[in-house]
Each structure stands twice: as C-alpha cells, then as structure tokens.
Design a protein that fits this description.
Layout lengths: L32 E5 L7 E5 L9
Antiparallel strand pairs: 1-2
C-alpha cells in the first residue's frame, strides 16, 4: 500500500485549471478540488474538480 502524507503549501489561486475539463477553478471553490503534488515536487501541481466524471488522472 502506498504511503501518503499531508503537505501544506501556498496555492497560486490565480491560474488553477482543472486537468480534465480545462475550466478555471474559482478561488472561492477550493473545497471542491483535488490537488496532487507529484513526486513531492512543489513545482508540479495538478488540480481536478471533484465533480469531473471518471477516475482521477493521477
């Protein structure tokens, strides 16, 4: 089983776009997103709407 840890980082809320639907993510709706930090690199962030259909990308 994979090990997960919670990472707190500053979000750049000015240009968040959903990986699936490519729509802008409103900063007031951050509770509706899933954020991935891939391979513990803080420069590679991936965001998806929780409502987007199907499995998550990562």
């Amino acid at each position: 089983m994979a090990n997960y840890r919670i990472v707190v980082t500053e979000l750049n809320v000015t240009n968040m776009v959903c990986n699936k639907c490519k729509k802008f993510i409103n900063p007031m709706e951050l509770h509706k997103i899933v954020m991935y930090i891939v391979a513990d690199k803080f420069t590679d962030h991936y965001y998806e709407h929780v409502e987007c259909p199907g499995n998550f990308t990562v």
